[in-house]
Design brief:
Number of helices: 6
Low-confidence stretches: none
Largest sheet: none
Strand content: under 5%
Distance between the termini: 38 Å
Mean pLDDT: 89
Order of helices and strands: HHHHHH
Structural class: mainly alpha
Length: 107
């Protein structure tokens, strides 16, 4: 699903079976405000979008999720790590662990 404000509002309104005018009346705004948002001509604040979606009988749920990048800098090190012996890999893990412990103490 395309989670733009326009799509979220249109989906909530459609699922509630409301016209733009009916939603506007419920939300104490104008039909033109609803139309501009749904057409992507206006980007509402989070509170405005939440209020409009709630007027349609829904609630917005926001959460952070890690994004996947096609090319991670972490993958650059895989070939080098695979060439290490098991003992060298353990030393690498120990070094990383010491670094993280020191970083957490400072932060």
């Amino acid at each position: 699903m395309d989670d733009t404000p326009a799509t979220l509002l249109r989906t909530a309104r459609d699922r509630a079976g409301l016209s733009q005018r009916a939603l506007a009346e419920r939300a104490s705004t104008t039909q033109s405000v609803i139309a501009r948002i749904e057409l992507g001509r206006s980007v509402p604040s989070w509170s405005t979008l939440s209020r409009l979606v709630e007027a349609a009988g829904f609630a917005l749920d926001c959460r952070l999720t890690p994004s996947r990048s096609e090319r991670s800098h972490m993958l650059d090190d895989v070939a080098r790590i695979l060439r290490l012996s098991p003992e060298e890999r353990l030393a690498e893990v120990a070094n990383t662990s010491r670094f993280l412990v020191a970083a957490m103490r400072r932060g």
